[in-house]
Amino acid sequence: MFQKILIANRGEIALRVLRACKELGIQTVVVHSTADADAMHVRLADESVCIGPPPSRDSYLNIHQIVAACEITGADAVHPGYGFLSENAKFADILAAHNITFIGPSGDHIRIMGDKIEAKRTAKRLGIPVVPGSDGAVTEEKEARRIAAEIGYPVIIKASAGGGGRGMKVAHTEADLEVALQTARTEAGAAFGDDAVYIEKYLEKPRHIEVQVFGDGFGQGVHFGERDCSLQRRHQKVWEEAPSPALNAEERARIGGICAKAIADLGYSGAGTIEFLYENGEFYFIEMNTRLQVEHPVTEAITGIDLVHEQIRVASGGGLSVRQEDIKFNGHAIECRINAEDPRTFTPSPGTITHFHTPGGLGIRVDSGVYSGYKIPPYYDSLIGKLIVHGRNRVECMMRLRRALDEFVVDGIKTTLPLFRDLVGNADIANGDYDIHWLEKYLAKGE
Ligand code: ADP
């Protein structure tokens, strides 16, 4: 097992990883920017190293400084959290070259899944169902027309290097295709320095359903069930739940089995998430994330298994603590992402939190790095905490969520808590009856 883990992240996820390390008796080092000197994870860590000024590129993305911090403190492993360097293959390779363990998959697996065309090809080869579309990059309009006619309109043009929902264009008819292709290529080139794009069938009313997987490092793969993350705004997840209200046990076992086998065949090691769009009973692969996800606590709630413990175990060569047959699903969990944002306009609302009171009681978990008197710096994303609620079934979970939201107090800044208080009272949400467009439509109505 590792002696000392360096946590290369900030905010709630840095604290989340720190807690897991403490439980496992592993020493912790955190790195932080000058803007985060007062952060909770810095206060609670065994050691901290300031690695630079506030902008991420000079601190949390500065590979050289992070490797230097490992060498100074003698850390033997790095947990990257999510975002920042968590899906940076070069970072994984550089750490390996310094004999420091990257708590995540190999650089090669990160690279494959980071290129969406390559990822889709790999998924297909591994027997994962994919969205019908081009078999690789498309450059010629003629070719685009042929493929679109074959799969049928509407189609979506997506950037191979894409991320965060950027570089995507929908063409509803052949007349839209030329402009969509050109715009997507130009946008992809400007945003990612790579103008490769591909075409796939545009699904009109899908749900976003993702499967949590793990490779144990010895060639075995397991799945921890699915999460439904269909409630999104601008492709950003807002509310996540497990299990999905749309799946039955047979569908869950089928897609889970396909994913676990794919992970084993790939020789993948560590945590991963295979994301699908789901429509009319069919799953369509869209991408794989080779890291821990923001929404991992809903899976932890229904399985009772600490996924960060498992990541650390696997990275240290100790394998998983569970086999597939040990993973049982119990009840229902919902996560609300609480952002420091105006709940109507979603503009960021940094500043000082004058009062922070979290709900408690059975089935309630709050993952947050903030506290009363904490000043939210304006440099990073606006997630200030996650409320995760568990109940024996979805009805009990929703009742408990409503109560927990009533107890939650964040004064001094604007947050998205009022949005969740609205959602929890909505009939469609109560029925689990929503697709990936539901939230945007709801917000547009201004209810
Ligand atoms: P990114 O990596 O940029 O987030 P994804 O491939 O994960 O890109 O897609 C992001 C979102 O775009 C999906 O959650 C979905 O809302 C939408 N999307 C992507 N592909 C399709 C498709 N074929 N049909 C309909 N919507 C899609």
UniProtKB/TrEMBL annotation:
Every ATP-grasp domain range: 120-316
Entry EC no(s): 6.3.4.14
Signal peptide: none
Keywords of this entry: ATP-binding, Biotin, Fatty acid biosynthesis, Fatty acid metabolism, Ligase, Lipid biosynthesis, Lipid metabolism, Magnesium, Metal-binding, Nucleotide-binding
Biotin carboxylation domain boundaries: 1-444
Pfam families attached to this UniProt entry: Biotin_carb_C, Biotin_carb_N, CPSase_L_D2
Enzyme superclass (EC): ligase
Listed Gene3D superfamilies: ATP-grasp fold, B domain
Catalytic activity, reaction form: N(6)-biotinyl-L-lysyl-[protein] + hydrogencarbonate + ATP = N(6)-carboxybiotinyl-L-lysyl-[protein] + ADP + phosphate + H(+)
GO molecular function, one term: biotin carboxylase activity
Pathway involvement of the protein, from the record: Lipid metabolism; malonyl-CoA biosynthesis; malonyl-CoA from acetyl-CoA: step 1/1
Subunit annotation: Acetyl-CoA carboxylase is a heterohexamer of biotin carboxyl carrier protein, biotin carboxylase and the two subunits of carboxyl transferase in a 2:2 complex.
Annotated function: This protein is a component of the acetyl coenzyme A carboxylase complex; first, biotin carboxylase catalyzes the carboxylation of the carrier protein and then the transcarboxylase transfers the carboxyl group to form malonyl-CoA.
Protein name as annotated: Biotin carboxylase
Lineage: Bacteria, Pseudomonadati, Pseudomonadota, Alphaproteobacteria, Hyphomicrobiales
